[in-house]
C-alpha cells in the first residue's frame, strides 16, 4: 500500500471539502462535549450518593460537648445513652433487619479528611470534634416519620437527618440535566452522522473519475475506501480532541476551582472521572466516523 | 480464456433481454472483434466479462474462474488480469501521461521501484516516449488513446478489452491504434474489441462475432464486418 499516495489524497480531500470538514469537526466537538458532560454528571451523582445513600436513609447524630440539640446537656453522649438509642432504633417496626450501622468518631474523621483533603481546615479540626452517628436503613424509605419522632429528643441525640429529603431534589435536578444533555448530544450526533455521510457523498462525486479508474484497474475496495475513512477519522479525532479539551477546562474551572472549594460536603468528580469520560468520548467519536463512512462508501463505491 | 455458457442478461426493470443464450469461447491469445448495431449487446458482453454486472442466466468463465461464483471481494483481483480501453479514453486530466499510467499501478499497491521501471517501458511500447510529462489535453486524440492503452496494459493483463477504441479518432489515427493493439495481441494478450468501424474489421481479418438483439448471429474466424448497410 502506497502511504504517500494515500496521504496526498487525504490532503486533497480535506482541502476540497474544507467547509464540510469544519462543519463535521464543530458538530462532533459540541455533541461530544455535551455527551462527556452527561457522563460526568452521572459520575457526580454516584459520588454524591457515596457509601451511605443507597444503604441508609436516616442519620441519627449524637451529642458532642459542643452540640446544642434538644437531647444534649452540654456533654458527650454516654455509652449507656448510645445503647438505649440503638435499642429504640432496632426495636422500631420500620427499621430494616440489620439496618443499623454505627459510625465512630474515627470513621467520621477519616471521611472528613477525604472531603477536605486540600483544605487548611483539616489541620484545625481534631477527631474529637467529630460527631458519632447511627445510620439507619428503613424497610420502606417513604415511612420515616415514625422513627424520626421516636428517636428525636432521646437523651444523647443531637439531630436526626433524613438524607433523602436533602439529596433527592438535587439528584432529580442533576438527573434532569444529564437527561437533557444526553438528548441534545444524541440529536447532534445524528446531525454529525448525516453530515459525514453527506460529505462522503460529495467527495465521492468529486472523485468519481479516479474511483471509476481504480475500480477498473482492480484497486481493492478497502484501498478505495481508505482516503474517505481517513478523512472522517481525522475530522472525528480533531472534534473529539476539542471536546476533551473543553471538558477538561470545564472540570478545571467549574469543579476543581469553584464547586470543590465552595461545597465540600461531598466528593466531586476529578481527573480520574474526566479521563474516563474523555476515553469514552474518543471511542464514540471514532465509531461515529467509521460506521457511516463504511455504510456510505459501500453505497456509493459499489464494485 | 473467456467462455460464455448459455448466458442471458436482462437488466432490472426491462422486459427485453440485453443478451440471450450466448455461447462463445475465446481462446488465449485470440484477437476478436465484437460487432453489431448500437443496442445489440456488445457493451453488455464486455461489462459481464468485467463482472460489472452478474448474468441473469448461464455462466461466464474468465481465466478458468466462474464469475458468478466469485466473491465480491475477489473481483478487484480478477480485474487486475483485464485491461480496459474506452472510446472516451477516461484519463485523469490533472495528471501527466506518466502519472496516469502510474496511477493504475499505485492503486493496486505496486512498489515504487516497479512503477519507475515499468511506466517508461510501456510508454515506449505505445510510442509516447518523450511525452511522459504532458497533460492529457496537450495531446491529440490518438495520443490520448495511446495513454489509455498504456494504462490498460502496464500491468500486463491476460485480456485487453477495448470498447470502440477508435470511435473518436480519424481513420489514419485509428490505423495506428489498431497496429498497437495488434502488437499487444502478439505478446500473447487476448484482445476483445467492440467496434462499428467497418474498414478496420475488414482490414484486420480477425475473428468476428456479430451480435443482434442480444443473440450471436455470426461467428467467423477470419471475418469481415458483414453486410454493408
From TrEMBL, chain A:
Protein's name according to its UniProt entry: Cell division protein FtsX
Regions crossing the membrane: 21-41, 179-205, 226-255, 275-295
- Please state every residue range assigned to the domain named FtsX extracellular: 56-160
UniProt source species: Kribbella sandramycini
Signal sequence, start to end: none
Q: Which InterPro entries match?
A: ABC3_permease_C, FtsX, FtsX_actino, FtsX_ECD
Q: What is its subcellular localisation?
A: Cell membrane
Task: Return the PANTHER family for the record.
Answer: CELL DIVISION PROTEIN FTSX
- List GO terms (cellular component aspect): plasma membrane
What are the alphabetically sorted keywords of the record?
A: Cell cycle, Cell division, Cell membrane, Membrane, Transmembrane, Transmembrane helix
The annotated subunit structure for this chain is:
Forms a membrane-associated complex with FtsE.
UniProtKB/TrEMBL annotation, chain B:
GO terms under cellular component:
plasma membrane
Task: Write one Pfam family the protein is assigned to.
Answer: ABC_tran
| UniProt record, GO biological process | cell division
Q: Name one GO molecular function term.
A: transmembrane transporter activity
Which residues are in the ABC transporter domain? Answer: 2-228
Q: Where in the cell is it found?
A: Cell membrane
Please give the chief subcellular localization of this protein. membrane
Membrane topology annotation: Peripheral membrane protein
This protein's record includes keyword tRNA processing: no
This protein's record includes keyword Calcium: no
Q: Which UniProt keywords apply?
A: ATP-binding, Cell cycle, Cell division, Cell membrane, Membrane, Nucleotide-binding
The residues forming a coiled coil are none
UniProt similarity note: Belongs to the ABC transporter superfamily.
Listed under subunit, the entry gives: Homodimer. Forms a membrane-associated complex with FtsX.
Question: What this chain does, per the record?
Answer: Part of the ABC transporter FtsEX involved in cellular division. Has ATPase activity.
Q: Which NCBIfam families match?
A: FtsE (TIGR02673)
The protein, known as: Cell division ATP-binding protein FtsE
Q: Which organism is it from?
A: Kribbella sandramycini
The gene from which this protein is expressed is ftsE
